[in-house]
Amino acid sequence: MKCSELTTEQWERVKPLLPPEETGKRGRPRKDNRTMLNGM
Description:
By secondary structure, the protein is mainly alpha-helical.
């Protein structure tokens, strides 16, 4: 299976469906939503 990153167009369609990115002060630092979605 070939792996590729989301295009900007694809990302703009998916972004509103994801929870907001928070900069919480506790625990492990979060990765941004786009990076995590590209990893799946």
